Amino acid sequence: MITIIRFETDYQEGAHPEILARLSLTNYEQTSGYGVDVHTEHAKELIRGVLSRPSAEVFFMVGGTQTNATLIKYFLSPCEGVISVSSGHINVHESGAVEATGHKVLTLPGHDGLIDPDELREYMRAFYSDPTYDHMVQPGMVYVSYSSELGTLYSRSQLADIKAVCDEYNLRLFIDGARLGAGLVSDASDMTITDIAGLCDAFYIGGTKNGALFGEAVVFPQPEKFNLKTFRTLIKQQGGLLAKGRLLGLQFEVLFEDGLYFENARHANIQAMKIRAAFQEKNIPFLIESFTNQQFPILTNEQHKKLSQKFSYETWQPLEDGKIAVRFCTSWATTDENINQLIQEIKNL
Q: Which of 73, 136, 65 is nearest to 96 (CA)?
């Protein structure tokens, strides 16, 4: 019987051993619920320190879908929608969670998974040039991902240009950071986490896809701009407030005490670059140029059939020439052994 080696996602494994050890060590501690505990407060302080923003507000939530839907609902009035590229996670992979809160996802075409700042400005100009705009869903915020759904990255200047458009039209800018770590440690990135904090109204630091059992850390870099007294209540209303909240805080405490968050992401990227190099050596093309932990080679049906006998990966999209784009995704736990086995099979294609 062949043991299938899995490369579908970056959350297939449980959690980093250091997190599991801390959970076990503190298992019998008695703390208040809902994140009112010393571990959660310490995690918040660690994150503020990494951001160099001592006044930032940090909230911990269970998962990415709850986080996206809750933040978007918080930022928008009932008649407003959120702008996203058509390939954005909230538009394609969250089962209409945003629409379920009563807000429409307003899509723009993506360029390698990214919003073009000039197209965003033109969209807003055209919207307000329409004399009937008040009969339409009003754009109230912009949603971007770092890294994107295709593993691509905004440059600092691109994100600054998007923020300038948002400021011009009074739009909130929200960054989905489910794979923030992979983006920031990429060799193709020119941004730091402090840059991210300075170029948006809110973002989140993804734990689920970077070594935590579950959890995301929502950050408001400038909380004085917003009335956050109701935000925790909204989290509860949306089903995102964990009763055993210290389990969230403790995981981020471990991730940010000694740089483990960035080490995990760096390991995932390094392993992905090995996969990338192996496909390149076989002159196998890619759907997209990604320098993060997601790689999108284009396979013939014969190559796909051969690889899929030993490896599990995501079928991304069929192409007009009969070939198929697939996704290999690495994680904090991807082993050299599994990578080497994959590389050998790629060589044999």
A: 65
Q: Which residue has the tokens 């449980």?
A: 14
Closest CA to 312 of 9, 1, 13, 14: 9
> Global pTM?
0.97
∠ CA 153-222-158 to the nearest 5 degrees?
A: 25
pLDDT at 1: 58
Query: 41-66 pLDDT, tens per residue?
Result: 999 999 999 999 999 999 999 999 99
- Structure-block tokens of residue 159: 């994100």
Tokens coding 31 = 């703390």
H-run or E-run covering 6? strand 5-6
**Structure tokens given for 293:** 């932990």
- Closest of 322, 328, 275 to residue 300, by C-alpha: 322
How many CB atoms sit inside 10 A of residue 96's CB?
11
The backbone region for 259, taken as left when phi is positive above 0, alpha when psi lies in -120 to 50, beta otherwise, is left
- Residues 124 and 317: their CA atoms lie apart, in Å, by 31
Q: How many residues does the chain have?
A: 349
343/346 Cα distance (integer angstroms): 5
Instruction: Provide CB contacts within 8 A for 61, sequence distance 6+.
Output: 67, 70, 204, 215, 216, 218, 235, 240, 241, 242, 248
Q: How many CA atoms lie within 13 A of 254 on its CB side?
A: 24
- Count of CB atoms situated within 10 Å of the CB of 190: 12
